[in-house]
Amino acid sequence: MRSRLDNNEAARAEGGVISGHTRTAADPADSVRLAKRVRDLPPSGIRAFFEAGSGKDVVSLGVGEPAFPMPEPVRKAVCESLARGETAYTSNAGMPELRGEIASYLRRGFGLDYEPGSELLVTVGSSEALDLALRSLLEPGDEVVVPSPGYVAYAPLIELAGGVAVEASGSAADGFKLTEAALGAAIGPRTRAILLNYPSNPTGAIMRAEDLMPIARLVQRHGLAVLSDEVYAELTYEGRHVSIASLPGMKERTVVVSGFSKAFAMTGWRIGYACGPRTLIAAMLKVHQYTAMCAPTTGQVAALASLRLGLEAKEAMREELARRRTFFVEGLRRIGLPCRMPEGAFYAFPSIAGTGLTSAEFARRLMEEGGVAAVPGSVFGEGGEGHIRCSYAASPEQLAEALRRMEQFLSRLREERKAETKQTERRPRGAAERAASGSAGGRPLVI
Questions:
Q1: What is the rounded CA–CA span in Å between residue 417 and residue 423?
Q2: Residue 76 falls within a domain, yes or no?
Q3: Which key words tag this protein in UniProt (predicted)?
């Protein structure tokens, strides 16, 4: 599949996005013609479900945001900085002391060695880091391979940078990991880079060194760049996260992207960073200084304090998320939704294939009839169909209530399917219909 943005007319219509040039003169705003690359951009499937459920009696498992407070020492450091009036611009690349602390943190935790003055850039969240890297790398029509299922922002960011997103579909049988075979099939003459995201949003899959080695060899053979989104690196539950940049021959062709939103529960502070070859980081800085100038100063202060004062709280959060993961996944299995135990991040990706509904139908009905917001797997690409994404970063009380509501919803689905089956059995059938009854009946509800 060459692009995830090709067939999104319905999504654009639902999101209220302008989809063409033809306009009436009734509304003055209609005289503004939007760029095609923006007109063709679908609204976020995650935000659509989040907004649809807001203000209603809905337990939201849709948005990836840790339900944990900022540690008190970090809060105090931010307040003291504000009291000192530290609200001016920082260096375009970020506060030197923050860059130095990030470099030390990456060296200690993941064996990555970056020079903070030339190989590290602080950005407005990790999404800006990805945007800068793509805009610095791609020529019009260049292709970027993205794993499917994968985070919803990747394909739009690639398209906005003039590139084409090419999906390499994973499967539950492979643990939703990118395989050498899938990547090899997706690489073509226009391929410029691959984009990795492990631990994965939405599946929770991780890639160990033995999984990454064949990917690295293939990347080197084809002379590709790698964008490695490692924002969930700290949320690896078994063993230690391995970055592809730590493998032989990969640091010089890899941009490591991460941030403070997930592992440090700082989603609203919008602080991310990118590490990579100094030539590429310099190019990204050039774009960054004309768009964002610098990351928010107070957010940088919070990030610095988190690295110096908040590491203990981060570890406690990871341990609590591991407990919630076990509770929620075991609960999903108990109510009849098969689910792999995620090895990282804070998402469960249960299969809903046995319900006979598409992931979009299931998610819509679960919210409207069951009062639980989850994200349909289809918004994460073709590889996500037949699943829904549920965040277990919600509070334990919310998770328990969500499971209770989901169990009731599934019970009603079973009764609905039984009634449909009985009605079908009572309906008179012709000879041709009887002959085809083995394949024409409704799919059983295996949940």
A1: 10
A2: yes
A3: Aminotransferase, Pyridoxal phosphate, Transferase
For residue 81, tell me if it sits in a domain: yes
Cα of first residue to Cα of last residue in the chain, in angstroms, is 31
Cα(274)–Cα(284) distance, integer angstroms: 9
**Residue 289 has what pLDDT?**
96
**Domain tally, the chain:** 1
What CATH number does residue 98 fall under? Answer: 3.40.640.10
Instruction: Report, as an integer, the average pLDDT of 252-259.
Output: 98
Residue-wise pLDDT tens digits, 409-441: 999 999 988 887 777 777 666 544 554 444 333
pTM (2 d.p.)? 0.86
Q: Give the chain's length.
A: 447
CA distances from 107 to 114, 115, 122, 366 (A): 8, 11, 17, 44
pLDDT for the residue 222:
98
Q: For residues 316 and 208, what is the distance between their CA atoms, to the nearest angstrom? A: 24
List of E strands, 75-221: 120-123, 143-148, 164-169, 191-197
> In the numeric block, which tokens belong to residue 410?
């599934």
Least confident span in 117-121, 261-265, 343-347, 403-407 = 261-265
Query: Is residue 230 included in any domain, yes or no?
Result: yes
Task: State the burial class of residue 292 (Cβ atoms within 10 Å of its Cβ: 0-12, 13-18, 19+).
Answer: middle
Residue 206 lies in a domain: yes
Q: CB neighbours (10 Å) of residue 7?
A: 10
- The answer to whether 40 and 15 are in contact (CB under 8 A) is no
Mean pLDDT, residues 142-162? 97
